[in-house]
């Protein structure tokens, strides 16, 4: 009968998943044969080195995570909570770069804290996922044309081009138009995400005055806020520096965050967009609401695609769980980070960083 230690050693040696132990100072403690094969390294050459020199974690948009608050190891070691699943790109050698599904588990011992980093190679699924994404993208694209036609004809009817309408007809057409607009938004968001998965998402950064951008967003979101009896405010300092961002994409982030806040803020509540310069290179933009807050069990899943809370107030308000995922994607594509703080029955603040414009002579780091 094998001893327990021999059994565990055999299990770690034979598993196809890469398993890596990292200490609280982000140095590699040990790794199994699958990890050395995935990374293209020898165990004795990398043990003791910093994980950033070996793992080189990136998100799926090729943004480096080492040294940032989005680093999975940093999040787990600081928060002492396991990370069940996240898709990343690992490796520094081109022939050994892998797209993997990662889980990270914190371990506390009398000799110190460390984390076990487990990665499963997703290369075998890549072709199937691309076929799926191509299909979804094609279907979404084909749906846009008829939906836009329906929306346009309803708009013509409401404007009276086909004759006068009574109040009841206007009401029902209004419901139909609202439903079609929601479908158009869903199709656009799904198309956006599938294009991102296929590597077809690009940003076009330029010099942008934040005060003007926020004013445009508030103006566009005001009808939705008024309908929900929520007050929408902007508090952007006059001396806030110019941003170096894609204006349409940052508008999309703000629209998604404000729309989310409106859903979860009761009538009479307020939503405030504020900003502050946190360094010479970065501005932090916040969307602050006085809403219901976010349940503890929902918080780890907030940025997951299609995640839906079971909270009564939230399920009553609808939504399909892509807005915050898209917001994070856009922010990270700009090199920034996004997070939130929430207090039940008092409100939630979502905040993200955006790069400052310095012209062409200074690189944002």
Question: What report would you give on this structure?
Answer:
- This protein is α+β, with helices and mostly antiparallel strands and 365 residues long.
- The protein folds into three domains: 4-121, Beta-Lactamase, CATH 3.30.450.20; 125-197; 206-355, Heat Shock Protein 90, CATH 3.30.565.10.
- It is 42% helix and 22% strand.
- The protein is built from eleven helices and twelve strands.
- The protein is globular and about 85 Å long.
- Residues 138-358 form the Histidine kinase domain.
- Residues 4-49 form the PAS domain.
Q: CATH first level of the largest domain: which class? A: Alpha Beta
In total, how many beta strands?
12
Assign the CATH topology of the largest domain: Heat Shock Protein 90
Please mark out the parts with pLDDT under 50 across 5 or more consecutive residues, or reply none. Answer: 360-365
**Number of helix segments?**
11
Order of helices and strands: HEEHHHHEEEHHEHEEHEEHHEE
Biggest sheet, open or closed, and with what strands and sense?
5 strands, antiparallel
Estimate the mean pLDDT confidence. 84
Could you say how many structural domains there are in total? Answer: 3
CATH superfamily of the largest domain: Histidine kinase-like ATPase, C-terminal domain
Overall shape: it is globular
Major sheet: arrangement of strands: 2-1-5-4-3
What proportion of the residues is helical, as a percent range? 40-55%
Class inferred from helices and paired strands: alpha+beta
Radius of gyration: 24 Å
CATH architecture name of the largest domain: 2-Layer Sandwich
